[in-house]
Amino acid sequence: MTWIDPVTHQPIPLSITQTPAAVPDGETRVDFYATVTLNTITQLPDTLRSQLQAIVADAYYTKLKFVSRVVDEGQLPFVGKMRRDANLKHLFTGPRTGKPGRPRLYDGKVSLRDFTRWEALPWADECMVYTVVAYSVSLKRPVRVVAVVRPGAGWPRVEVLFSTSTTMTAATIIRLYRARFSMEFPFRDGKQFAGLSECQSRQLESLHFHWNMALLAVSAARLSQLQDQRACPLVFSMEDEKRRAYNEFFVGRILSILAVEPPDENCWKLIDEVLTLGVKAA
Asked: What is the pTM (predicted TM-score) of this model?
């Protein structure tokens, strides 16, 4: 699970847990993922917990078992992606007839090809954005649905996003879902520079410790660059951070061997240039 700033798209991994080979009878992997998500949210400090806007996940997690638990127990809206043939129904908003019986709840099936009953929104990209509040049959709840339609050969390409918060705007849903992809970058940096995939232990506790320490190293390097703010907006490079740390160690080693007096201000300026030697985003 990863915390992501929706403005800067800076990801900070919160925890990494191995999917078990077998789950208890009556449960599925989706139940396990929901439990891990809720446990992670519960363990967050109150200051960080209060900053959470939503739980965002890809289309795999758009399942009743996952969404209902994280929304009802986690007390946070869920933003995700639906299939292009999702079973949705328009909500009936007309007047009641006054006749006996159950009031009418729905007003036909939602079409993902005909958007005449949707609200069209202006968008800067080369696409059209439509939104509607509809009832999701699979999730058993009303949701805010956003259809991003891009022109293409034959039928237009439609991406269907949604939020369990019906008051969330379409722009917020798109912005949060786009930020989700940033969670992949710590895994890339962890594998390339922090040995994330190089643990040879077969013990569950050792693997758990190794993976979390590898991602912690990536987060510490990102925090260092955020504090220094060497580039604005920040362009994080784990390779640059490792090179800068090596240069600092190398300079310190040379100065310790020479046993010279502490460098003066002019000398430190030259040392700063050495520390950024070979750094690409300096």
From this structure: 0.81
Measured CA to CA, the distance from residue 219 to residue 213 in angstroms comes to: 10
DSSP E strand boundaries for the chain: 2-4, 11-13, 55-56, 78-82, 88-91, 106-109, 119-121, 128-136, 141-150, 157-163
Please determine, for residue 223, whether its predicted confidence score (pLDDT) is greater than 70. Answer: yes
User: Around Cβ 234, how many Cβ atoms within 10 Å?
Assistant: 16
Cα–Cα separations (whole angstroms), residue 150 to 59, 147, 155, 156, 160:
19, 10, 9, 6, 12
Looking at the structure, tell me whether residues 46 and 119 fall in a common domain.
yes
What secondary structure letter does DSSP report for 182?
A: G
Kindly state whether residues 117 and 212 are assigned to the same domain: no
Q: Contact 63/78 with Cβ under 8 angstroms?
A: no
Total domains in the fold of the chain: 2
Secondary structure class of 46 (helix, strand, coil) = helix
Residue 180 has phi, psi (to 5 degrees) of -60, -35
> For residue 205, what are the domain limits?
186-275
Residue 153 has pLDDT above 70, yes or no: no
Contact 263, 271 (CB under 8 A): yes
pLDDT in tens, 69-83: 999 988 899 999 999
pLDDT at residue 282, rounded to an integer: 43
CA 232 – CA 230 distance, rounded (Å): 7
Q: Say yes or no: 61 and 181 in one domain.
A: yes
Output phi, psi for 43, to 5 deg: -80, -5
Radius of gyration of the chain (CA): 25
Strands of 10-96 (E only): list them.
11-13, 55-56, 78-82, 88-91
Judge whether 282 lies within some domain: no
Quick check: 233 and 9 in contact, CB under 8 A? no
- Locate tokens 């849903």: which residue? 173
